[in-house]
Amino acid sequence: EYKIMSLNYTAKLFGLACVLYRMFITSVITWVGCQFLMWTSTNIELILNALALTFILELDRITYKAAITASRQNLISRLRPLTWYDPTGISRTYMNFSKLSMMFSVLGAASLVTFGLRQIQYNAYMDMFTLAASICLFQGPTPGYWTQFRDTFPAPGLCETVLGLKCEAPIVGEAGVPCVENWNQKLCKFYVMTDSLFSTWSSIDWQNQGACVAHINGMPYPVRDLRFTQEGPTLQLLSHACQKMWQREPQIEFRNKARDNTGPRLRVYPYQEFVPSGPFWCKYFEGSEKVILPGRPLEISKWAEQLEACVPSTLSYSGGRGDGMLRGAGLGEMDDVAGADNLTSSDGPFSGVWLNPKMGVVIIENIGSSAVVTNSLLPWSPCPAKVKKTTLKFLKEPYYSCELKDDGKIYMSNGEVLVNQKTEADKMKQKEDNRNGPRFAWFR
User: Fold this and answer.
1) Is the omega angle on the peptide bond into residue 398 within 30 degrees of 0, that is, cis?
2) CA separation for the pair 389, 404 (Å, rounded)
3) Could you tell me where the DSSP H helices lie in 256-322?
């Protein structure tokens, strides 16, 4: 073994520089490592990143083993460690106490740092969530791309999802897939362009329930009966804010004419294109402006309290559609809707869009002796059919037979009667024109 007897001034300075350098590296790695771990969101990544930091701290030893020759490493390993002598004897007398105090001091400091970093992490994540939630909840698209509203809207489907709503609206296509998932279904295109005489909204209990019902654990609940607390998970806070924006008895005002309890799925102008599925909105002044503050949104736990003025809120159309929107991606979908008129342009007697209070919209494409029937309630849709003069028979379950009579209606074997949408709509329009005069020309 070897023992260092003394160090010259140069060696002491070099040793001090090494100690300061190691302290600097350790401090930087501690700061960067805390930031690194603080923004780790999952437990697995937290463990892997902690192991990566351990590897970084061991780099000096790895470099020493790789760069220093074996003889020098052997010499250094045989050096006795430097010792320090306390002339007062205090350290020897209170050695156990100093060890315990040092241990508790380190643990206490580490706990305080961990708690502080956790609080910083929580506040940062809540700020990001609040910002994203405010964008999704108050800056959604307006119905029909109308540009000037005094109201704010959530992103389509957001509140319906967080509240677990099932809305009484024809939003399923012939393939049994929701229209929001597959817009190219024929029924979806006809739903938004047709003024149906048999709107499902006519059976809604507007006073007590509204157009949608929340399903929790398989049980239906009116939206207004849901209970939330001011403190809770972020999803619960967002659900509470959506509940405050829920319009149980929606009121629409278009060109100074009130349209009470219509809701955004009733197929009347201007709700024939790009419609949400549930009546969620909030007036901006004295409503959502209390949440969307300059600089940053209000703390999300206080949203529900500030959104009390959202209900009732009349949706007022006060401007034209945004040309920029319509000339962009929205224009293509409008063209698709307009092109839906040609879906049943075949010359067969059964071709057309047919309506029924129970079945809703039924689309029949008839070419010669063959036909295709499309309806969301059929087990097979589109369903092939065979036509012989004024009789149509389904070739798959439920094997209905239909007869087209002289009154222009289709009588089905299950007792249902289908009326032609275009014929009935023309009759309704004629009655409206005769009763109200030309001032209702905008309605169509």
Assistant:
1) yes
2) 9
3) 303-306
Specify whether the CB–CB gap between 187 and 174 falls below 8 A: yes
| pLDDT digits 0-9 by tens, 329-355 | 333 333 443 344 444 455 788 988 888
Q: Which tokens hold the place of 317?
A: 């159309």
CA angle (353, 359, 362) in 5-degree steps: 20
Instruction: Give the integer Cα–Cα distance in Å for 382 and 339.
Output: 19
pLDDT digits (tens, 9 = 90+) for 53-86: 888 878 888 888 899 999 888 888 888 887 777 7
Separation of alpha carbons 145 and 180, rounded Å: 17
Is the distance from CB of 151 to CB of 312 less than 8 angstroms? no
Phi, then psi, of 311 in degrees rounded to 5: -120, 130
- Up-side HSE of residue 49: CA atoms within 13 Å toward CB? 16
Structure tokens at 191: 């739903």
Scanning the structure block, which residue is given the tokens 């809703």?
Answer: 360
β-pairing verdict for 165-167 and 151-152: unpaired
Confidence class for position 229, pLDDT limits 50, 70, 90: confident
Exposure string for 30-52, b = 16+ CB within 10 A, e = fewer = eeebbeebeeeeeeeeeeeeeee
β-pairing, 315-317 with 251-254? parallel
DSSP 8-state assignment for residue 152: E
Q: How far apart are CA 188 and CA 175, in angstroms?
A: 10
Beta bridge partners of 354: 362, 420
Look up residue 415 and give its DSSP letter.
S
Instruction: Supply the pTM of this predicted model.
Output: 0.54
| pLDDT tens-digit map of 128-165 | 999 999 999 998 877 655 556 788 889 888 898 899 88
Do the beta carbons of residue 166 and residue 265 sit within 8 Å? no
The pLDDT value given to residue 317: 65
Task: Compute φ and ψ for 367, nearest 5 degrees.
Answer: -125, 110
- Judge whether 403 and 387 are in contact, CB under 8 Å: no
- Cβ–Cβ < 8 Å for 320, 144: no
- HEC profile of 307-356: HHHHCCCCEEECCCECHHHHCCHHHHHHHHHHHHHHHHCCCCCCCEEEEE
Preceding amide of 312 cis, omega within 30:
yes
Residue 248 φ then ψ, to 5°: -65, -35
DSSP-assigned letters across all residues of 87-127:
TT-HHHHTHHHHHHHHHHHHHHHHHHHHHHHHHHHHHHHHH
